[in-house]
Amino acid sequence: MSDKKRVSRRQFLNYTLTGVGGFMAAGMLAPMVRFAIDPVLKTKEGGDFVSVASVDELTNEPQRFEWTIDQVDAWYESEVQKTAWVYRNENDEIVALSPICTHLGCTVDWASNEEYPNQFFCPCHAGRYTKDGTNVPGTPPTAPLPRFEFKVEEGMLYLGETKDSGGGV
Amino acid sequence: MRWTKADTTQYIPEKQYIDTVIIPLIPFDPGNDQHMVKQAFQRELNQVFTNLIEKEYKGRIFLAPDYYYLEGSQADEKERINRWIHKFKEQPFHHVFLFTFDSKWKKYEGELEGHVLWVPGMGSGDIQSTETQSFVREQAHQISDLIQAYW
Ligand code: FES
């Protein structure tokens, strides 16, 4: 009778919940599918070069330069502080080293240990690197400090991504 | 190192190197309009500070999850903090620091099993301002010198 035609309370809930659930599932699936089929689609904002210093400022002594970039991770965007040690070597070439210790990630300092005035020193476990970033054998790091890609335009130094210097001693 | 999946995964096999833990102590009182803004600001400042120190010493310092408590409840909280500290020492962490802007902890320092790093905070300000940034840098520098003196 008329009862049959009416949608029962339970049925009604069932319909609506399936509706909402289906909608949510679609919402979750869409981005997952997109990442799965085309990882290249993910925006990558780290590849830009950022102007960090004027080339006249560079000396033979490594100096610390800092700048910030907007880093976009999957869930949120944040400002990240970046640091580099930059100097000119004997051949007048620019060298830009990452300060992140390859052992466990502390920040290394130039000439901060009196016994090793010509090396980078890591305060965490006394890791050391020579001026060109090569790790000193017998200290915890097993790889050299990564180098930044750089370019010079109109007298300004631009730094990009770091790349592993490879090797290791 | 932080309380994240990536960092804890890295921590476990390397734990002999990461021997120091910092626990941020953050007071709040959600029932009090007068103190709310100041406390929220101190919380932000505390996070900027501890994040800076963690970043600089990632390979040796573990930043614990924040320890929240109701403003003024030191007498009740000290045992709970000591329980946290015991747990960390089981790892073993050798140096436990409690980082706070709340000067009331100084009175309880003797009863706590970690070192209280108390820094006079800024009453108010803008977390983004250059003034705040230089304050944080300067203080963070001194705090890390102090921590290194224990190593
Ligand atoms: S993190 Fe640099 S020596 Fe261990």
Counting helices, strands and paired strands, the structural category of chain A is alpha+beta
Q: In this structure, how is the largest beta sheet of chain A organized?
A: 3 strands, antiparallel
Q: Please identify the structural class of chain B as seen in this structure.
A: alpha/beta
Number of strands of chain B: 5
Q: Which chains share the greatest interface?
A: A-B, 12 and 11 residues
- Which hetero compounds are present in the coordinates? FE2/S2 (inorganic) cluster
Distance between the termini of chain B: 17 Å
Radius of gyration of chain B: 15 Å
Low-confidence stretches of chain B: none
Number of domains of chain A: 2
Helix/strand order of chain B? HEHEEHEEH
Largest sheet of chain B: 5 strands, parallel
Topology, number of strands of chain A: 9
Averaging pLDDT over every residue of chain B, what do you get? 93
What is the overall silhouette of chain A? elongated
**Can you tell me the number of structural domains of chain B?**
1
The DSSP helix count of chain B reads: 4
Secondary structure tally, helices of chain A: 2
Residue share in helices of chain B? Answer: 40-55%
CATH class group of the largest domain in chain A: Mainly Beta
